[in-house]
Specification:
This protein is α+β, with helices and mostly antiparallel strands and about 60 residues long. It contains four helices and three strands; from the N terminus they run βααββαα. It has a three-stranded antiparallel sheet with strand order 1-3-2.
C-alpha cells in the first residue's frame, strides 16, 4: 500500500520529530526507504516499510 510521503511522516513520527522531507526523498531514491516517486510526488510503501529491519544485508535476504 502506497502512502503519500507527507501523510506517512505525520502517521509515523510524533509532531516535530519527523525527518526532513528532503532526507526522506533521498532515502526513497537510494532505496533505503521502500517507496517510489510518481511524477513529482513521493510515496512510501507502508507494508514493506514495516518489514525493514535496518540491517541492509538482512533486509536484502528477506526481500528475495
Amino acid at each position: 500500500m502506497l502512502m503519500k510521503l507527507s501523510k506517512w511522516r505525520e502517521a509515523r513520527f510524533p509532531e516535530g520529530q519527523a525527518p526532513d522531507v528532503r532526507t526522506c526523498r533521498r532515502e526513497i531514491d537510494l532505496g533505503t526507504l521502500p517507496g517510489k516517486r510518481i511524477g513529482r510526488t513521493y510515496y512510501v510503501d507502508v507494508e514493506k516499510e514495516k518489514q525493514v529491519t535496518g540491517d541492509i544485508l538482512l533486509d536484502e535476504l528477506l526481500q528475495h
